[in-house]
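Journal club prep, shared notes

We agreed each person brings one worked example of a sequence with its structure written out as tokens. Mine is DNA-(apurinic or apyrimidinic site) lyase. I'm keeping it raw so we can talk through how to read the token line rather than staring at a rendered picture. Sequence first:
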Amino acid sequence: MGRLAAQWQKLPVTLTELCIDTTLRCGQSFRWRKFDDEWRCTLHGRILSLKQDAESLYYKAAFPDEAAIAASSGTPRPRSDDAPGGDDTEALLRRYFRLQLDLRALYDQWSRDDANFRKKAPQFSGIRILNQDAWEALVCFICSSNNNISRISQMAHKLCIHYGPRLGTVDGEDYHDFPSPAALAKPSVETHLRQLGFGYRAKYIVQTAQKMLDEKPAGWLNQLRNPACPPPWGEELPPPAKTGPAVSNNDDCVPSYKTAHEQLLTLSGVGPKVADCVALMGLGWGEAVPVDTHVWQIAVRDYKFKKIASKTFSKAIHDAVGDHFRNLWGPYAGWAQSVLFTANLKSFSEQLKGGEGEDKDKTVSTKSSPKSPSKAVKKEILEEEEEKVSAKVTTTKRRRTTVVKTEEDVKVTVVEEVQTRSSKRRRRG
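Then the structure, token by token:
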């Protein structure tokens, strides 16, 4: 183990501007683990510890030797000579939590524009969208398909243990950084990940890692990043590609949310929801609104969207819900959506007086609960079948799914069209 910061450092920030107990366990990042009142994770070649009181965030970092830093999945850079002791952790945290944004002003704006947000926001202040490494966000959200927070966290932990570089040990616990694309692109990885319980996601992870190495130029993911949101560890964004669809638009090849979303859809295991998760939490596009079953519940219950029989969402439905919230909340719609998403999780429902949370997800735990192998296999088979339905958007014996093609300007009305056509087909059957 290399240098360990002996003292906690203080970063003044109130709970209204940042609440780590909510932000770190609401389904954004899956590698933070809590030990008593302390959160820990590896981040950019260091083992980082955080805790918080009402007025300040406290942090300390354990730095491994330079060889371990060089093996890290993040791009290594020297620690700043301008920072105390050469420790640039404060600068990293300011970018990672995007503390330059005035969160209270954003909450005030969303509360003025939306009565439902105004009702729930007071119990969920301080929720920020993390500025994460794009590759880590991509892999973790591929794991999120038909999954819950607890299980995704276990998968992320397994990826680090088996394929990430070891950075050191704190209080008897080994810490590994997130694996690089090269570490996950080897042919043997898929079989091993299946043995570890990843199911069909193993294939998508390996295929995406191979595509990143063999088909995409260096820095391709960062070329899709919002220029207003540079990576948290301070390296400069690579110049946008001069040709090709990755960043092609009419604005001097400056990347946009739409082009980032479309390019992410070309990767294995990435549908509209995963693409928006990566765009929002890995590439800094605040207008990205991931639509999953929980967000759909919110749209139906609180924003008068009509229910549909199928659990499979077409891209038309995804776009309709996302566009509605973008029109309502503005350029940081994804941030506002994360507040209501958190309020809808069962693990946070006690914070709402009415107990409105409906999710069955569990929060991140430092221990894995054993599961019957036979039940796990049966669940994985069911998930694989559901994933095939979702990927192909086709019909099955038990359920019919109607696909509706819409133009860009079709918004909320597409949901009613889906409902109507589905009902007609059932009557004819």
